From TrEMBL:
It comes from the Bacteria. Residues 28-97 form the SprT-like domain. It comes from Kaistella yananensis. InterPro entries: SprT-like_domain (IPR006640). This is SprT-like domain-containing protein. Pfam families: SprT-like.
């Protein structure tokens, strides 16, 4: 999908930002039906292109915000390499810079919320009560996360068992099962329910 085909989903005056961020990258943008598990998604494809999916039901400002979040993954990986954490400091700094660059896109009542969020960008949209309230996303429930999006010592539930992340071995995660005291290895894209 070309950038201009995205216009109907976006607020006005976003194309100059997107053209700069897209640069020479080959990006497949897929507009999906509403998903209860996520608003958007980024993947690097085997052929070195990039795929971003975004829910079609999002309001224009939220659509742009989610697209910015996903593009920040692409730019962080391209600038800092594939070994960085998906929502680590490199991604946070990239996302922060992009939000501040494009702050003019957002309405006056949303700008303070975006500025506050940009000070410490969160991986999960639902972690920002101000944004959730602004966009009235009460029905959105993100019950699962990829284990690679969690931090060391985070607790999570997998198949009704509680675990804590102890560390990383190469690409996989070593996790202690709180219920039986045994250690297990989890792949980065294992879907788990994070405990707060």
């Amino acid at each position: 999908m070309s950038i201009t085909n995205l216009e109907k989903y976006l607020p006005e005056n976003t194309l100059p930002f997107l053209k700069t961020w897209f640069g020479e990258h080959y990006i497949h943008i897929k507009i999906t039906k509403a998903r209860n598990s996520k608003l958007g998604d980024y993947r690097k494809m085997p052929d070195k292109s990039h795929q971003i999916t975004i829910n079609s039901t999002l309001q224009p400002q939220l659509f742009f915000f989610v697209l910015t979040h996903e593009l920040a993954h692409l730019l962080a990986f391209e600038n800092f390499g594939n070994r960085i954490s998906p929502h680590g400091s490199e991604w946070k700094n990239t996302f922060r810079t992009m939000l501040l660059e494009s702050i003019s896109i957002y309405s006056e009542d949303l700008k303070p919320i975006i500025l506050k969020f940009s000070k410490a960008p969160k991986a999960n949209f639902m972690s920002s009560p101000d944004l959730v309230k602004y966009f009235h996303i009460e029905n959105y429930e993100d019950e699962t996360s990829y284990i690679e999006d969690l931090e060391t010592e985070d607790r999570f539930i997998y198949r009704k068992q509680t675990y804590i992340i102890e560390g990383k071995r190469k690409k996989n995660y070593i996790c202690l099962n709180i219920d039986n005291g045994k250690r297990y290895i989890f792949k980065p894209l294992a879907r788990v329910e994070k405990l707060s």
